Amino acid sequence: MIMNKIIRLAVLLLCFCSCAIDNDAIYYPVGNVDVENGGPALEDGKGELVARSYNTEDYVLDTVAQYPGNPTLGKLTFMVNLKNQLAGQEANGFNGIGTSGLTMSLGYKDGNYPEESQVPVYASPDVTTAYAVKLRLKGELTLSGDDWMIDFVYVQLASLFQPYPPASFPEVFMCKGGEQSFACFDSFRRTWTFDIEYNRSNLFFSQLYFNLFVNLAGQKREDRIRLRIDKESFFEIYKLEE
């Protein structure tokens, strides 16, 4: 048993070390990220609610994350298009309602996710309009086996599709990742538990993206991923008064 654990750890370390020289690597070692851009929090009565999605009960994305046709074994990266199940109020161009879906990337450093996954959660009819966004994302991410480990998780709200967690870009309104700013990791349960909130005004965008990115490391070509979105999660977009 001890020898098997030592061998497994050695293979995992070999995977990490090989990433630096592999041109097809989709692994990036990143630290904690905590970015919040925009104006002050939205005051009550200062904005018109134009789109809202929410849940009446927890829902779960329980699926198999399959390693893509990339020769670099040991790194597994996917993104989740975050959505809530119901609409309190929706507008044309609002794509935040439905079930969250998982999408694989063939090359994380290039961000070449399929075009159908790069769909904004909202498209603004007027780029001169000032908006406010209020959201809460609460839940947990769980791996089923012990052949993979969660290397990094981050959630991002941006006006451009950003597949890599930036330290500071004007297009990024919120980016939270790492154990300190995003979630707590329970190594025994192999679960990340998270609860983040965002409330900012004076945001200008033609498109708005809201995604969760997860980077795994391990030895198998697939693993079962379970993402639970708590019923207390919600997403709201407000048009600010002139």
TrEMBL record:
Residues 1-20 form the signal peptide. Keywords: Signal. InterPro entries: DUF3845 (IPR024328). Pfam families: DUF3845. Gene3D superfamilies: Protein of unknown function DUF3845. It comes from the Bacteria. This is DUF3845 domain-containing protein.
